[in-house]
């Protein structure tokens, strides 16, 4: 069973919901979640917050966090996930912020750096992965990783 199927089955059976807050994936995660027929039972909305201003205005990410740590950081994805979960009234929230390239990388945060946040009913965790590939491949790998992350932490 795929991660997406696991997520859909679990959320349906437990009457739980998920939302997402995306930056570098630009809505691809929401599109993947809604590929499943009946997803409206457990997925009602998402947030595509590409700019720092949108992250702050729509999700409540602190401008101080963005200034101190940048959009692609543990702190930012934590605030993105927590903000999305609260605003959507969801049981789970996934957040993604990264550098898909081909430009925008730095020695500290090279192209392919993606941070993930997952707010669950009990906690909020964050992790980072450095993906290889072109822009399209990095974005798709980020979506796949996020779905697997959620599937592994369903309660």
Task: Give structural notes.
- The chain has 155 residues and is of the alpha/beta class.
- It has a single domain, classed as CinA-like (Maf protein), CATH 3.90.950.20.
- It has helices at residues 3-14, 28-33, 52-59, 63-69, 74-88, 135-152, and strands at residues 18-22, 43-48, 92-98, 113-119, 124-130.
- The longest helix is centred in the last third of the chain and has 18 residues, at 135-152.
- The radius of gyration is 14 Å and the shape is globular.
- The model has no long low-confidence stretch (mean pLDDT 98).
CATH superfamily: CinA-like
Please state the CA-atom Rg, rounded to the nearest Å. 14 Å
Q: How many domains comprise the coordinates?
A: 1
Please count the helical segments: 6
Numbering strands along the chain, what is their spatial order in the largest sheet?
A: 2-1-3-4-5
Shape: globular
Overall mean pLDDT: 98
Query: Are there runs of 5+ residues with pLDDT below 50, and where?
Result: none
CATH class division? Alpha Beta
- Fill in the CATH topology: Maf protein
Give the N-to-C terminal Cα separation: 18 Å
Query: SSE string, helix = H, strand = E?
Result: HEHEHHHEEEH
**Main sheet overview:** 5 strands, mixed
Helix content: 40-55%
| Known CATH architecture | Alpha-Beta Complex
Count of individual beta strands = 5
Q: Into which percentage range does the β-strand content fall?
A: 15-25%
Secondary-structure content class:
alpha/beta
Summarize the structure.
The chain is α/β, with parallel strands linked by helices.
């Amino acid at each position: 069973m795929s991660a997406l199927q696991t997520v859909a089955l679990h959320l349906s059976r437990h009457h739980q919901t998920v939302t997402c807050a995306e930056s570098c994936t630009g809505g691809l995660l929401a599109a993947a979640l809604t590929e499943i027929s009946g997803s409206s039972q457990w997925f009602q909305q998402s947030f595509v917050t590409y700019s720092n201003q949108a992250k702050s205005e729509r999700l409540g990410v602190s401008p101080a966090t963005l200034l101190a740590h940048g959009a692609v950081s543990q702190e930012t994805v934590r605030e993105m996930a927590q903000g999305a979960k609260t605003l959507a009234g969801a049981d789970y929230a996934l957040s993604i912020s990264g550098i898909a390239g081909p430009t925008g990388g730095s020695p500290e945060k090279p192209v392919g750096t993606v941070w993930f946040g997952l707010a669950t009913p009990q906690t909020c965790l964050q992790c980072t992965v450095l993906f290889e590939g072109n822009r399209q491949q990095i974005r798709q790998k980020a979506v796949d990783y996020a779905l697997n992350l959620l599937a592994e932490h369903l309660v």
